[in-house]
TrEMBL record:
Belongs to the class-II aminoacyl-tRNA synthetase family. This is Lysine--tRNA ligase. NCBIfam families: lysS_bact, PRK00484.1. The keyword Metal-binding applies. The keyword Metal-binding applies. Its EC number is 6.1.1.6.
Amino acid sequence: MEALRAWRASSNLLGFAASRAAKAAPAARPLRPHVRCCSPAAASTTKPPPPPPQDRRRRSASSSSSSTSDRESIRAIRLKKVEELRGKGYEPYAYKWDRTHTTKELQDGYTHLENGEVCADVAVSIAGRIVARRAFGKLVFMTVRDDSGTIQLYCEKDSLTEEQFEQLKTIIDIGDIIGANGSIKKTEKGELSVYVKNFEILTKSLLPLPDKYHGLTDVDKRYRQRYVDMIANPEVADVFRTRAKVVSEIRKTMESFGFIEVETPVLQGAAGGAEARPFITHHNSLQRDLYLRIATELHLKRMLVGGLEKVYEIGRIFRNEGISTRHNPEFTTIEMYEAYSDYESMMNLAEEIVTRCAMATHGKLRVDYQGTEISLERPWRRETMHSLVKEATGIDFNSFGEDLESAKNAARGIKTESNENISLQACSSVGHVLNEVFETVVESSLVQPTFVLDYPVEISPLAKPHRRYAGLTERFELFICGREIGNAFSELTDPIDQRGRFENQIKQHNAKRAAMTKEVKSTEGKHEEDDFSYEVTLDEDFLTSLEYGMPPASGMGLGIDRLVMLLTNSASIRDLFFPRNDERALPRHHQPQYCATVLY
C-alpha cells in the first residue's frame, strides 16, 4: 500500500485518485504542470546521498525488493485499467491502425511552419509509444515515438470528447501505444505537434518503463532485455539499422561480382570447417545426435566440386566456447568461394566489401572506433607473419628451421605488455610457436587495416602449400583494430594431402586431450576443461568429394559481427544481439562432451 500511495502521488494520471484530487482543488488556485516520467523513481528530482560502503550491499538488496514491489503494484493498477476499458466497450489491444505519416515525415514536411501556425485543413494519422507526458489543466502534451523519431501530441480538452479527455487523465500511461488523428500545429514555443482530434489506445502497457532521467543502466539487464533497452535508449536501434545496411551492401557486392547465394545445413552429422567445440542436439525421428554447424566451409566447397564456380553464404555459426566482448557462442559470417582464383583475389574482394560497407553506412572511408581514427582507404598494408613478428621482436623464426627448442627459448625471452610469459606448452612445432608469439605480441598492434600473409602449414590444414616458401601456406588474415575480421586462403584441393593434414591434426588434438585428462586426474578433477576436451573425427564425405576433383579456388570468411562493431563504434559484440535470457555461462563441468570434425 505504501508503494501504491507513492506511485499515485507521483502522477495526476493514475486511476481515480487523480480525478478526485482534481475535483477537490480550489478553482482559483493556479495550476502547476504535472510532469509524468517513465517510472515512479523519477518522481523525486533530488538524489539521496550515497550510502556508506558497509551499507551498500544491504541497501541494494532492499532497493531491489522495493523496486519489485512498486513494479507489481503498478502492474496491478494497469490491469484494472484494462478491465475498465473493456467494461466500457473499448479493446485495449487493437488489431490495426491506419497511419498516413511517420513522425519523421511530419517533422520534415512541416518544419517551415511559423510559431503558433495551425494547418487546420491538413488531416494526419500517426501511431507510436508514449515516452513523455505533461499536463496543464485543460491541456495535455504527450511525446510519441515511432521507428523514425518523435513528435508531440497537443491534446486540448475542447477538441476532444469528455470521455477521451478523462482517459488522458486516468487511463493512459507512459509506455502505452496509441494512434492519433488530427491536424498539424506549431506551438508558440516552436514545437511541431499533432493537434489531436481523436485517439485510440492501441496497446495498454502493463509494466513501467525505466526511469526517464536515469534510463536503463543495469548493463546485464540491458543485454538480457534488449527490447527494454531499445525503448529506454532509442539510439540502440541505430546499431541494428546499420547492421541491416551492412548485410544488404555485402549481398549487393557479391552479386555484382557474379556470386550466387546458397544455403547449407545448420544441423550436421559431423561439425566441420573449423576446430571448435560444437553444440549438440538430438533428432528424435532419426534417433541420432546432430551438431549445430561451426562453419559453412566444407559444404560450400562441395558445391565447387558440383560445378558452381562462385558461391557464398551468409549464415549463423554456433560454437560452444567462451563469451567476451569479441566472442559470442552464436555469430554471423559470410563465407565465399571462387573457382580458378587464389588468395590474392580474396584480398581485393575483402577491400571491396569493407570499403563499400563503410561508404553505405558512413559516406566516407575514415571512421572513428573507440577514439581512434581508422582509415579504410585502399590499398591496405600487406605483410607476412614472419616479417611482422621480426619487426616487433627482432627474432627471425625462419632461422630456426625445425628446431623447436631453440624457437621456444627465443620466445621465452620476449617481453609482453602484461609482463607475462608467452604460453608455449601446447606448441608442438616452430610454426605453432611463431603463431603464439604473433597472437600475443603483434595482433593487438594491427590497428589500421592489415593483411597478414603466409601462415605456417601446421596451423592451416585447409590451405594450399605456398608455391615459393616451404612450410608455409597461401593464407591471410585481415586485422582491423587489433581484431581478426577475415580469414582466407588458396584452397587445398589435393585429397591425399588433405587427408594427411587432417590425420595429423587429429593426432595433435588427441595428444593435447590426453595431457589435459592426465592433468585433471592429478588435480582430482578440479582443473577446468579447456578447448581440447572434445573429440575430433575425419569428415570422410568431404574427403570423398575432393577425390572427384575440386577446381583451383580461393575462399574467405568475414566476420559480419566484427565488421558491424567497427562501423557502429560498438565496444562489445553483445551490443549487436538479442541475447538469450539464460546467456550467463554454466560452469564447464555442467557442459556435455562433444565430438567435432577436424577442420581449420
